[in-house]
């Protein structure tokens, strides 16, 4: 992948569940990263006319430079229904799968670490599974924020739908900032440089 041109539109989707009761859950790290990116773009999430997602439209990059056009999105549905709103936004903004980035939690990566990749399976992640089904392909980018495996015999579903530990909560802003940096690098410099810089 080559660096983006200023005419390309990218769709960056933060995966999560809507509503305050889910806000602090490990499953919602994608929402946190899109919040950080919205802040960097100087935008505020607003309802898209489809009624199925909140979006921020703008450009990423240094102030005063014509950076790539980006649509940040947070679907207004539960994780397992993410694909429908993503497909609607991709159609509306004419964004092909190869310019879609999903930001999500990843059980198989330790907390505090990050991986980026293009394509792949869903590894049991309901949001990714829904996106693959609706888009008809898994060939979109993923920024995978590690949350680690549940301790002891805790059920995986209970673990992802629980709040970060006290220690993790202190470190979380650094992980979110790091993931937002990875999204920016992916869009502006391509996958190879992003993996070299951020995959741990």
Description:
- The chain is α/β, with parallel strands linked by helices.
- The protein has six helices and seven strands.
- It has helices at residues 29-41, 83-93, 126-135, 156-160, 166-189, 191-198, and strands at 9-14, 46-47, 53-59, 69-75, 100-106, 114-118, 141-146.
- The chain has a seven-stranded mixed beta sheet, sandwiched between helices.
- Strand 2 and strand 3 (53-59) form a beta hairpin.
- Helix 1 crosses helix 5 (166-189) and helix 2 (83-93) crosses helix 3.
- The protein is globular.
- The two termini are 21 Å apart.
- The relative contact order is 0.20.
Order of helices and strands: EHEEEHEEHEHHH
How far is the first residue's CA from the last residue's CA?
21 Å
Structural class: alpha/beta
Biggest β-sheet: count, sense, barrel? 7 strands, mixed
Mean pLDDT: 91
Compute the CA-based radius of gyration: 16 Å
Unreliable parts: none
- Overall, the morphology is globular
Quickly count the helices: 6
The order of strands across the largest sheet is: 2-3-4-1-5-7-6
Tell me the fraction of residues in β-strands, as a range. Answer: 15-25%
Task: Describe this protein with a few key phrases.
single chain, 200 residues, alpha/beta, seven-stranded mixed beta sheet, 6 helices, 7 strands, 36% helix
